[in-house]
Amino acid sequence: MRRLFATFTMMLALAAAAHAGGEFTLDWMTIDGGGGTSVGGNFELSGTIGQPDAGGPMTGGNFTLVGGFWPGIQTAGPGLLGDMNCDGNVSVGDINPFVLALTDPTGYAAMFPDCNILNGDCTEDGNVSVGDINCFVALVTGG
Prior knowledge:
By secondary structure, the chain is an alpha+beta fold. The protein has a domain at about 90-140. It has helices at about 1-20, 95-105, 105-110, 135-140; strands at about 35-40, 45, 55-60, 65. It has a two-stranded antiparallel ribbon with strand order 1-2. A two-stranded antiparallel ribbon has the order 3-4. The two termini are about 45 Å apart.
């Protein structure tokens, strides 16, 4: 407990000393919105706000990050594979919508008009079928 108190006191003293050196100014700043998707190997990164700067690629080691701006709402192709209720993640909440897409595609489209049924098409054959079940279960369970 004494060590924690001493560390906290030292941090407070350093902060006060740093502030005593003069007024802090920020000459410029940017908050870049937008984003895009960078893909490499097994990795895919989509970004939106908080990029250092939208623009050219940023590289380091084996990684490259390309900034930019979101192209707008995309209607072609599926979204997040396994995200059947379109909440942005794959979870147990996607099971009932998946079963509905599997058994009644028209009912799924009526209940989830803003979702793409192909989010459940793991086999990429153009429809949700029994062949997609194992892959979907693996996505939901993190397998």
